[in-house]
From TrEMBL:
GO biological process: mitochondrial translational termination
Residue ranges crossing the lipid bilayer per the database entry: none
Highest taxon in the source lineage: Eukaryota
GO cellular component: mitochondrial large ribosomal subunit
PANTHER family named in the record: LARGE RIBOSOMAL SUBUNIT PROTEIN ML62, PEPTIDE CHAIN RELEASE FACTOR
Listed name of the protein: Prokaryotic-type class I peptide chain release factors domain-containing protein
Renumbered residue ranges of the record's region Disordered: 82-109, 131-154
Gene Ontology molecular function, alphabetical: peptidyl-tRNA hydrolase activity; translation release factor activity, codon nonspecific
């Protein structure tokens, strides 16, 4: 769904601005929306480490001379939704987040709310249905570590 807003320009042309994903769901209750907002606020205070995401390297495509044919420089980072998504039993009324706290990303901890994982699966262009994961790759640079960092930054 797209919202039309008149831009305050001399030509007064309308431009399309997409609504946020959370506004697209008519089945979401007000309390569910508040819980999502609390989780996002806590997640913004959280530092992700690279050991939480499997990184795979493969050969890049396209121009690049012999470097492309010999080295695995393309980096692909995956977020495995099945391993990180909390079940309904794990989610409480506050969605596991207290005011001013951060999201617990300890090893083996399921930290992603089910509603957020559902939004990613339904709307993310990076979602891979066969592995139920979000996969982001980079082959912008000529070295594997630089591409891995670029994929993580994305």
């Amino acid at each position: 769904m797209i919202v039309r807003i008149l831009a305050a320009t001399a030509s007064s042309t309308a431009r399309a601005i997409p609504r946020s994903i959370s506004c697209l769901h008519s089945d979401a209750s007000l309390e569910s929306m508040r819980a999502r907002r609390r989780w996002i606020a806590a997640f913004e205070q959280t530092t992700l480490t690279t050991d939480q995401f499997p990184i795979a390297f493969s050969r890049s495509s396209g121009p690049g001379g012999q470097n492309v044919n010999k080295l695995n420089t393309k980096a692909t980072v995956r977020l495995e939704l099945a391993r990180t998504t909390r079940s309904d039993d794990d989610e409480d009324a506050n969605d596991g987040v207290q005011s001013g706290s951060s999201v617990d990303l300890s090893p083996g901890k399921r930290w992603l709310p089910k509603a957020v994982a559902g939004d990613l699966a339904a709307h993310s262009p990076y979602y891979v249905q066969s592995s139920h994961s979000v996969s982001i790759s980079s082959m912008r640079h000529r070295t594997a570590p630089a591409n891995a960092q670029d994929a993580l930054d994305k």
